[in-house]
């Protein structure tokens, strides 16, 4: 049994989305830059963007919002922050991470996941009636 209700869970998303304003636009732009740089074989820039995303999720979402309904948010946030620190250490400090154009089966799977996460998932959510505006306006799950 979860220590929170579905309504409380959705309310966290509403509060988070209201608080971050246009940050998703910046995230998509940074993600696009990281993809272009990764495609060209850059390492440090991609690792830096990934570290920023993991740090944001750990602090801005888990610690500042999710902890309001569950203490596990502290653990989840800490794990995200540890991953961000790992990306900084291995990707920025040691320059031990390499990225490049997708090759082979694993590259195709990775590219498919990127397309799914950035294009298909939002489109499917919108088609299911989960418009961003409706999610921001109500603490209950959007219904068709």
Write a short abstract of this structure.
With 144 residues, this protein is an all-alpha fold. The chain is 72% helix and 0% strand.
Commentary on this structure:
By secondary structure, this protein is mainly α. It has a domain of 96 residues. 72% of the residues lie in helices and 0% in strands. It is built from six helices and no strands. Helix 2 runs antiparallel to helix 3 and helix 3 runs antiparallel to helix 4. The longest helix has 24 residues. The radius of gyration is 17 Å and the shape is globular.
Topology:
Elements: H1 6-20, H2 23-39, H3 44-63, H4 72-93, H5 104-127, H6 132-137
Helix pairs in contact: 2-3, 3-4
Proportion of helical residues: over 70%
Strand runs, count: 0
What integer is the average pLDDT? 88
Structural class: mainly alpha
Please report the number of helical segments. 6
| Overall 3D shape | globular
Q: Roughly how many Å apart are the termini?
A: 27 Å
Low-confidence stretches: 133-144
Proportion of residues in extended strands: under 5%
SSE arrangement, N to C: HHHHHH
- CA radius of gyration is 17 Å
Summarize the biggest pleated sheet: none
Task: Name some characteristics of this structure.
144 residues; mainly alpha; 6 helices; 72% helix; disordered C terminus
